[in-house]
Design goal:
This protein is about 10% helix and about 30% strand. The protein has 1 helix and 5 strands; from the N terminus they run E-E-H-E-E-E.
Length: about 70
């Protein structure tokens, strides 16, 4: 079985995720409210509609950005 370890950064928080996961799986595992955030994998924004198909890979850097209201 192939194992994947992914470093996840969320406000100075690092998690190690093992196994084969989509970006949706990772977000659910971290219990992040996904309604108001954007996610970048290796500095590339991944559109929300692609999260279920986007497989995370060993060494991926995942950054979660919360929405900020401006005016």
């Amino acid at each position: 079985e192939h194992s994947t370890y992914v470093t996840v950064n969320q406000v100075n928080k690092v998690e190690i995720v093992q196994g084969e996961h989509t970006l949706t799986d990772v977000m659910n595992q971290l219990s992040i409210d996904t309604k108001s955030c954007a996610v970048a994998v290796n500095n590339d924004i991944v559109p929300r509609q692609q999260w279920q198909r986007h497989m995370v890979n060993h060494g991926d850097q995942i950054n979660v950005f919360g929405a900020i209201a401006g005016g």
